[in-house]
Specification:
This protein is mainly alpha-helical and 204 residues long. It folds into two domains: 144 residues, no CATH class; 57 residues. The protein has seven helices and no strands. The protein starts with a helix and ends with a helix.
């Protein structure tokens, strides 16, 4: 019994260390914030390590975007909790936060006008392009996973067109309001579908 408990403790400790180092690596080498991190988190946590499924990644991305806090931290917390409970959530969250915190502290302490340094400014121009590609990659992967799901694609397309028009014509419309409208439309469509299915069942 004691050996079993010791074995479980070692497994949990190993999982926590792995979560901490994995998300530290993600936080340290992923520029551009949460949206750029989505693709990297999915590649590591879904494809390589299998900690969560593709559907879970899509769901947590939507939830993380809809809830308070940075999207990368919310994703890390979910994955950590899924892997090793609340301790895993804490380890993953610390892992994704600490590298950025340390780097920013060092920059603020030792370097004035950081982005005015020519080498740094030139490097960040290239980083901006890479960030854009990472965000597009995450979006393309999500669209591919929606195969056969017509309703979500229609809602997504409508939201994309609406956001494009808002930006082109500089309309004052909150992205939060757009998300709430998309959610309301989705709920309404699913409710109508459930009623149709219930009526079909009653007739049978």
């Amino acid at each position: 019994m004691r050996e079993t408990c010791v074995g479980k403790e070692k497994t949990v400790r190993k999982d926590l260390i792995e979560l901490l180092f994995t998300f530290s690596k993600i936080g340290l080498f992923t520029f551009g914030g949460g949206y750029a991190m989505i693709s990297v988190i999915e590649d590591i946590c879904v494809e390589k390590k299998g900690w969560i499924t593709h559907d879970e990644m899509m769901n947590v991305t939507v939830i993380a975007e809809s809830t308070p806090g940075p999207i990368a931290i919310n994703c890390a917390t979910f994955v950590g909790q899924k892997k090793a409970g609340w301790k895993g959530a804490l380890a993953a969250t610390l892992g994704v936060v600490l590298p950025s915190f340390v780097v920013i502290c060092i920059i603020s302490m030792f370097l004035d006008n950081f982005l005015e340094i020519k080498v740094i400014a030139d490097a960040f121009r290239g980083i901006k392009l890479a960030v854009g590609i990472l965000i597009i990659d995450a979006a393309v992967k999500m669209i591919k996973k929606m195969k056969g799901k017509r309703r979500p694609k229609v809602i997504m397309g409508g939201a994309f067109v609406a956001m494009l028009l808002i930006n082109l014509f500089s309309w004052k419309f909150s992205s939060i309001s757009l998300m709430l409208i998309a959610g309301a439309v989705s709920l309404m469509l699913f409710a109508l579908e459930d009623k149709k299915q219930q009526k079909g069942g009653d007739r049978a």
